[in-house]
């Protein structure tokens, strides 16, 4: 059934092909990615036969989003091992492909540790490769389960904070099935609200400069039959002042020990707006995104992206994050400030929702307790 915006009411699969999958054709194992730079125009697959192809895919954002980067990193180590490449070298290159999302290095470490433990036992590289693959598959499964539990906890929290239902939720960047082994993080909560008949509207920030909201979140929301509306990032203020936002739901790339949250650039201004307008600002992330080794927000390395992503618009149907060559929107030679993420201090975060439960208020002690409970030290 179509609603006012002409969207179908079906809850279809988020994409025709999964965001990531491992395959073993006769020519040797490969990691197949859905190339996210081509969405929403087309679902094109990218086949990685070695870790360096995966490093490139991570850099171009063909594969992206914190939980999926962790899964991809783990499979990347398994791929290097299975193809007989130097595992440590591949692991270092993968872990360093993007600096902010801690899940990437966590996933890489998990597969590398599994490989090394097997080899140390005298298992040999083939058994090491099998162990690394098993670790990657396990992480993939765990992320899917975490996603389901985050959605349950998040939906319950929305019910507590906003009794009466009919939620109008604002989200930023893309946090759905495209970034996860399951249905995602913040988006999975909005989807659960939709399925429970409690989502009145999903406000989707376009998410400049690479448009993860417009290209990816709107794509997933449309396929799910959710009532959604796209806005430019700088329209959010007027939406708040019109009283049209009941809650903000975002994901995270790294949560420091003090509760500071690094997420897609533009998240922090939303937190400030939310506080001013007395609207809950909720972060949804698996426990693997909490990094007890990063003490505070100032210690989080924020990735700086190339200026052309701001000074040019990608040509329609072309990869958004290519090596320039798009349509110029600024004079030639213009310098651009292009951080991929910003950091929201804990005092602006109403709650952090994880698969292990909700931390609110967001304090170092609350997060430390969560990490201890889940064995993430
Ligand atoms: O640069 P990206 O597209 O990888 O940034 C992704 C985000 O900022 C997401 O919000 C974050 O990874 C959380 S995804 C569950």
């Amino acid at each position: 059934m179509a609603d006012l915006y002409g969207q179908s009411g079906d809850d279809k699969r988020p994409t025709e092909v999964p965001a990531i999958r491992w395959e073993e054709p006769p020519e040797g194992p490969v990691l197949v990615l859905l190339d996210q730079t081509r969405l929403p125009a087309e679902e094109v697959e990218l086949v990685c036969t070695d870790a360096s192809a995966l490093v490139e895919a991570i850099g171009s954002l063909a594969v992206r989003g914190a939980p999926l980067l962790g899964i991809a990193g783990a499979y990347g180590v398994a791929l290097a091992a299975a193809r007989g490449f130097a595992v440590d070298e591949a692991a270092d290159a993968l872990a360093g492909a993007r600096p902010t999302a801690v899940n990437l290095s966590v996933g890489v470490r998990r597969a590398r540790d599994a490989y090394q433990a097997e080899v140390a036992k005298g298992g040999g590289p083939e058994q090491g490769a099998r162990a690394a693959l098993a670790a990657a598959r396990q992480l993939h499964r765990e992320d899917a389960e975490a996603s389901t539990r985050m959605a349950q906890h998040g939906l319950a929290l929305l019910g507590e904070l906003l009794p009466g239902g009919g939620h109008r939720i604002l989200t930023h960047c893309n946090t759905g099935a495209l970034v996860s082994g399951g249905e995602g993080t913040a988006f999975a909560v909005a989807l659960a609200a939709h399925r429970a008949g409690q989502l009145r509207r999903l406000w989707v920030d376009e998410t400049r400069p690479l448009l993860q909201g417009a290209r990816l979140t709107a794509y997933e929301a449309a396929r799910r039959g959710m009532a959604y509306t796209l806005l430019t990032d700088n329209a959010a203020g007027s939406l708040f002042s019109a009283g049209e936002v009941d809650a903000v739901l975002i994901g995270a790339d790294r949560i420091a020990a003090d509760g500071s949250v690094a997420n897609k650039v533009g998240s922090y201004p939303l937190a400030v707006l939310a506080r001013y307008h007395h609207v809950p600002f909720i972060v949804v992330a698996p426990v693997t995104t909490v990094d007890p080794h990063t003490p505070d927000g100032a210690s989080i390395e924020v990735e700086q992206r190339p200026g052309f992503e701001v000074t040019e618009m990608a040509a329609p149907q072309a990869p958004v994050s290519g090596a320039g060559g798009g349509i110029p929107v600024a004079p030639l030679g213009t310098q651009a400030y292009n951080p991929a993420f910003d950091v929201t201090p804990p005092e602006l975060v109403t709650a952090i929702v994880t698969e292990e439960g909700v931390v609110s208020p967001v304090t170092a002690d609350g997060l430390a307790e969560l990490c201890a409970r889940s064995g993430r030290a």
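Residues 61, 64-67, 101, 173, 175, 179, 184-185, 212, 251-253, 263-264, 340 surround MRU (CB under 6 Å). The chain is about 40% helix and 15% strand.
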